[in-house]
Amino acid sequence: MAKKSKKREAKKSEKTEDRLSDLPDSILIHILSMLCEDTEDSKEVVRTSVVSKRWQFLWMSVPVSLEIEIPDDCCFGPPGKWERHVLDYLNSTNRELHYWRSCHKIRKFSVNCDSSDTERFVKDVHLWVYFASKLANVEHFRLRYEGAYEFPQFAFKNTSWRKLDIQLGETLNPSANVNWSGMVSLSLRYMYLTDGVMEKVLSGCPNLECLKLYHFVDVHRLEISNVKLRKLIIDNSETDQCDLSLEILAPYIQNLKILGSCREIYLRNVASLVNAVLNFEFDCYIEEEDTLPRMECTCLKELFHSVAHVEKLELGPWCIQYLSILELEGWQPPPSSWKFLQLSTTLRQLDFPGICSFLQSSSDLETLVVDGYRESRALLLRYTNTDEQIRRFETHDFNCSFLHLKTIKILEFSVSVMPLVKYLLKHAVVLEKFIIAAKYKKSDLYYVKRAQELLSIPRSSPQASVIFSYR
C-alpha cells in the first residue's frame, strides 16, 4: 500500500510539474516580472531557477530593477568597521553584477553615492557606469554622485538607454559625437553645461521626447530642433544660484515648465507650445524705492507674448505680483487663446486689479483655477497699498464678458476673495460650476454660510452650481 501511495504522489507531482511546463514563456515571465520592483525582489526571481528545469533560465528574460546605494552615514563609526562594511558591500555588489549581465533586459539600474567621501568610490562608480553602458542591456540608468565625477567618454555611445538621469557635480564634456539614439527621456542635474555640449547631446538623441535640466550653469542659448522632443523642464528651484540667463528656441516643444530662480528667460519660436507653466522668479535687486526692475518687466512682457497662443497656462505668485505692477503702469496683456488658466496667488485684494486686467485678455477661457499661495508682496507694496488697490478694483472699469468660461475652481477659499468671486460671477455668462476646494474640512455650518453668500451674489449664468470639495 505504501508503494502504491508513493507512486500516486509521484504521478501527481509530475502532473503538477507538467502543468507549469505547459504554460508559455510569456505568461511565466509576466508572473515573474510582477515581482521585480527592486534589487531584493529581483534576487527572489533568480531563486526561482531552482523550482524546476523549466524555470532554470526564465529569470534571464525578466526585466529586473537594480539599485546600488552608498548612504552618507556609512562614513561614520569606527574606521575599521566602516572599512570592512564598505569592502564587503562593494565585493558583494560587483559579484552580483557579474550574473546580472546575463539578463536580457534590466528595466532600471540606479547608482546612489551620497557619501561625503565620494572620491574613494570613483573607480567603483566607473565600473558601474561601464556595466550600465557596455555590459548590460539597461533601459533606464540613474546616477547620483554627490562629488565631482567626470562622465566617461565611453558612456556617450549607447543605444539601449531609453532614460538617463544623472547628477554629477561636474562638467558634462563629450569629446566626440554623442550616440544615444534610443534615448526618449534625459535628465541632467547639478552640472556644468555649455551651449556646445547641449548641441552635441541633442544632436545625438534623435528620438528624445523629454528633456529635464535641473540647476545647471553656463548654458545661455538652448536650441532644440528635435522634432520628437515635446516636453522641456527647466528647474532651478532648489539652489541659491540665480544667474540663469537663458534663451530658448524650440519650435516643436508642446509642454514647457520653467521653475525656480533666474535672471532672465526668453522664448523664441515656440509655435507648437500647448501647455506652459511659468512658476519662476527673477532675482532682482532694486536700489531706489520708485525704480521698477525694467529688465524683468521687459522680459516678462515678452514671455506673455510668447505664450499667448497656448491652450493651458499656469502662473506662479511672482509672475502675478509683476502683473499687478505692470497693470499699475497701464500695461495691458496681449490677447490670448488659452482655454485653461491657473493662477497661484495670495488671494489678497492687493492682486485683484492685476488679475482682472489679465483675465480681460483671456476671451477664450473655459476653466479658471485660482490656487491660494503664501507669498510676500513686499515688491508690489512699494508702488501701492491694499486700500488703494481695493479702491481701484471697485472703481476701475474691468467690464468684459467671459463668453466661454464654464468652470471656476478656487483653492484655499477665504472671505477676502469674495470681491473677486462677485466679479467672476457677474461676467461669466455661461458658467456651469463654481468649485470651492478647501484644504481642511470645516463644519457643515461654515460651508452652508459660504454657499448662501455665493448663491446670494448676482450671477450672469442662472445654471451655475456651487460645489464644495476638499483638496
Q: Helices, strands, pairings?
A:
Blueprint: H1 2-22, H2 25-33, H3 39-47, E1 64-70, H4 79-100, E2 106-113, H5 122-135, E3 138-145, E4 163-167, E5 185-189, H6 195-203, E6 210-214, E7 221-223, E8 231-236, E9 245-249, E10 255-262, E11 264-268, E12 275-282, H7 294-306, E13 312-315, H8 317-328, E14 340-345, H9 352-360, E15 367-372, H10 386-395, E16 407-411, H11 418-427, E17 433-438, H12 444-456, E18 465-470
Domain FBD: 399-469
Pfam families: F-box (PF00646), LRR_At1g61320_AtMIF1 (PF23622)
Protein name: FBD domain-containing protein
CATH architecture of the domain at 303-471, please? Alpha-Beta Horseshoe
Query: What is the topology, as strand order, of the major beta sheet?
Result: 1-2-3-4-5-6-8-10-12-13-14-15-16-17-18
Beta-strand residue percentage: 15-25%
CATH class label of the domain at 303-471: Alpha Beta
- Compute the gyration radius: what is it? 29 Å
Residue stretches low in confidence (pLDDT < 50, at least 5 long) are none
Number of helices: 12
Q: Kindly name the structural category.
A: alpha/beta
Q: Sheet bearing the most strands, described?
A: 15 strands, parallel
Q: pLDDT average, as an integer? A: 82
Number of DSSP strand runs: 18
